[in-house]
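Our consortium's second objective concerns turning raw sequence data into structural hypotheses that experimental partners can test. To show how far this objective has progressed, the report includes one record in full. It was chosen at random from the queue rather than selected for favorable results. The single chain below, 310 residues long, was entered without modification.
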Amino acid sequence: MINLQKLKLGQKFTLLLVVVFLGGILASGTALASVLNHNAQAQLTTKALMLMETMNSVRSYTSDHILPEIADRLETEFLPESVPAYSAREVFETLRGSPDYAEFFYKEATLNPTNLRDKADNFEAQLVAQFQNPIAPQEVSGFRSISGGDLFYIARPIKITQESCLDCHSTPAIAPASMIERYGPNNGFGWQLDEIVGAQVISVPAQTVLKAARQSLVLILGIFAIVFALATLMVNLWLKRYVVRPLNKMAQVAEAVSMGDASTEFTVQSEDEVGQLSGAFNRMRMSLQMAMKRLERYRGNSRSSPDHST
């Protein structure tokens, strides 16, 4: 237990600053962590949406330029590369070879896909059902838990907007025979124009979000700690020069005056409270000196009076 009565003035100020700093860190640290976590999510969301737009460009290019060129060939030989979803996913997997995107995952989660690799799980199926609501937002993000850990995800609906998609997904009867031979007639059919059949989902481990926020938090708190240490040092130096040192000098003068040396002087060239205290102390010292002189004269007069002669 710290005994405040035994601490020096500089130590008391330092202790006060430490208490204020720790209180400020506890009060603002939580809010700051929340803000930094939100910013980290916003940054990842921006990057994810950019990737999603890139994948949409790949899908459009495949559908508009690649598929028409090989349409006749598909009757006898099915090429997965002709499927926009397949092209987008393969391009994304290539992109994941870059360290900047290695932790990102892309999936076109579909309720009834041709390729069961794209089958939506229970959570993704709920997202699709949410997008099918006419008043639902067209973009959602958040956290989900899987067996490997938590993920931060961003999702948008997959809507059938081109009639060319129905050439492969309306009925098995009009679908390319090579596709039926590869995937069978049971999956990926019954789609309709303007129907929301799935969700584009880009996810990243939640630890990535927390790591980015934690690094920023440590950096900011480190800067705060350095600034606080410098501020504490400056306050102590200022306190020592303009408060503690004058007060110590004043105490020494008071000690000398108490021992009978009333000629000792003490001055502070400032107009603050310490300067005012110095002025009051000097006036008291002068008053005490004048009182001592009067007392000495009185004693001298009393010795020379006839009533005290022998």
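The partners drew two points from this record. The first strand starts at residue 105 and ends at 110. The chain has seven helices and four strands. Both points have been shared with the crystallography group to help prioritize constructs.
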